[in-house]
Design goal:
7 helices; elongated
């Protein structure tokens, strides 16, 4: 699973003592909602999200938005201690939309296959997809057939079924995970 690259992802760097040493504007906005806290307030909010015994991504709520908090160790410690610096990535949680990027990675789709699937999700026909991509309808059908093979389905509806089932499972997982309210 990769790091979100959309503009709304928050990034916080913590030193070995879990003190924030850097936070981008998006992270400050997410963690500080509804107002900017002092330096201690930011540290307290991050501490609320940390659970060393539970290293998996943690859902949390800031205002009315759901986020996922992921933690990454930043290399071995340089001072000989057992603690390392940590990167904290704050990204919007699923809100019902399909995450085609993760599906493309999971099923090893090429960028063009992924683009074709994206248009399929929008409900476009092969001819409409071809016009948007600047290719022939037959090439669209080839991209869809290759995606079907990689996804283990035999129809266009099967592709959509796999994607929506995957999304529904992720949403159920998040709904059953305790969310920290900030």
């Amino acid at each position: 699973m990769g790091i979100s690259t959309h503009a709304g992802a928050g990034i916080v760097i913590l030193d070995a003592s879990l003190r924030p040493v850097y936070a981008n504007p998006a992270a400050l906005q997410i963690l500080a909602y509804p107002q900017l806290p002092g330096r201690g307030g930011l540290r307290d909010r991050i501490a609320d999200l940390l659970r060393p015994e539970e290293p998996r991504p943690r859902p949390f709520v800031s205002g009315r938005r759901r986020y996922i908090c992921r933690f990454y160790a930043l290399g071995p410690p340089s001072n000989g201690s057992s603690q390392t610096a940590t990167a904290v990535i704050l990204e919007r949680g699923p809100n019902g939309a399909l995450d085609l990027t993760r599906a493309a990675i999971e099923y090893n789709l090429t960028p063009r296959e992924g683009e074709t699937i994206g248009y399929l999700v929008e409900g476009l026909t092969s001819k409409e997809i071809a016009q948007r991509m600047g290719i022939s309808p037959n090439t669209v059908k080839v991209f869809l057939r290759l995606a079907m093979v990689k996804m283990g389905v035999t129809t266009r509806s099967g592709i959509l079924g796999v994607l929506f089932t995957r999304r529904d499972e992720e949403l159920r997982h998040l709904e059953t995970s305790p969310a920290v309210v900030l």
